[in-house]
């Protein structure tokens, strides 16, 4: 175990493996998209990393017509997904309007967190297995449109350290149980659950995620924003999980707005994630958070799947 290697000087151990960030939020912000390209350039020049593509899950503030402009602005390095951060609005727009909009996208992003984190107290959809949503999920399933970056629940830690996001474990497990009901009712729906379905803050949660992945063959996860909780898990348990389910895990960060002055900071954040996955070092923090994390030193073939193969197979080939 090594501590002291600096993320600002770290060069990837596997420069030959391209990376796809499958969970980002650039939206249609011109400045942020341009800064993503600068991050990419610095990672390539200084750290030998080929960050070749971003899946942009955030068009809640922009019309679907801006897809072409985003592709142009990013020189084809970014794909734009139609998404929804207000589940209630699905019922308001109706299934026909939904079909017309989603048909223009290669996937659909849905945010479904606990009621306490909703953006309005008018929401009535508490759980994702609400039968009123089933026609929408059926349409996605029947037309081969994946449910990408599906946000379920929020981080729930152990007693004494519940995390502020979802401190009530009863609320947390109601969300997770409803999520499994969705998988049961729509077995052909391709689901990429954001943040590991937030089953990453306790070892018992990770074991439950093992159960879900073993039981539902169309379920995948991204690991966006999860690095900050890796120190809460047994390192060998987590490493074994990555190796066992390497064909079901997509690399992601949850990167959002990037200002001109924060480009270097975000390059370092990316490098911390690569250090956690590639080395045995104790890394000071991750993409979010500052807690020390011992690296997983994952095998090259595992990293190839997590960094690139899975995202290309499930998502990127649909956009090219």
Describe the structure in your own words:
- The chain is α/β, with parallel strands linked by helices and 320 residues long.
- The chain has one domain (18-265, 300-319): TIM Barrel (Alpha-Beta Barrel).
- The chain is built from ten helices and eleven strands.
- The chain has helices spanning 30-47, 67-73, 88-93, 95-102, 134-142, 169-185, 203-215, 235-244, 263-278, 300-319, and strands at 18-24, 50-56, 78-80, 82-84, 108-112, 147-152, 191-193, 219-222, 249-250, 282-284, 292-294.
- The strands form three sheets. It has a six-stranded parallel sheet with strand order 4-5-6-7-8-9.
- Helix 1 (30-47) packs across helix 9 (263-278).
- The model has no long low-confidence stretch (mean pLDDT 91).
């Amino acid at each position: 175990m090594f501590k002291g290697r600096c993320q600002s000087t770290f060069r990837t151990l596997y420069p030959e493996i391209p990376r796809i960030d499958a969970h980002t939020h650039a939206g249609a912000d011109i400045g942020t998209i341009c800064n993503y390209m600068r991050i990419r350039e610095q990672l390539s020049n200084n750290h030998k990393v080929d960050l070749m593509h971003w899946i942009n899950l955030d068009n809640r503030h922009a019309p679907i017509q801006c897809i072409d402009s985003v592709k142009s602005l990013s020189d084809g390095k970014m794909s734009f997904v139609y998404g929804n951060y207000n589940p209630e609005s699905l019922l308001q727009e109706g299934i026909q309007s939904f079909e017309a909009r989603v048909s223009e996208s290669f996937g659909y992003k849905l945010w479904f967190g606990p009621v306490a984190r909703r953006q309005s107290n008018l929401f009535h959809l508490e759980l994702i297995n609400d039968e009123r949503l089933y026609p929408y999920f059926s349409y996605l399933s029947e037309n081969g449109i994946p449910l990408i970056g599906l946000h379920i629940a929020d981080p729930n830690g152990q007693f004494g350290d519940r995390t502020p996001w979802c401190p009530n474990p009863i609320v947390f497990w109601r969300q997770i149980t409803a999520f499994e009901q969705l998988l049961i009712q729509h077995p052909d729906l391709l689901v990429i659950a954001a943040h590991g379905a937030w089953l990453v803050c306790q070892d018992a949660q990770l074991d439950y995620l093992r159960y879900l992945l073993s039981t539902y063959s169309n379920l995948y996860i991204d690991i966006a924003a999860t690095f900050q909780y890796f120190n809460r898990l047994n390192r060998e348990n987590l490493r074994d999980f990555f190796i066992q389910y390497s064909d079901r895990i997509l690399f992601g960060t949850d990167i959002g707005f990037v200002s001109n002055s924060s480009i270097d900071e975000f390059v370092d954040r990316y490098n911390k994630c690569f250090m956690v996955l590639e080395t045995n070092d104790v890394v000071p923090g991750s993409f979010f958070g500052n807690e020390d994390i011992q690296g997983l030193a994952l095998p090259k073939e595992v990293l190839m799947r997590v960094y690139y193969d899975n995202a290309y197979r499930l998502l990127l080939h649909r956009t090219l």
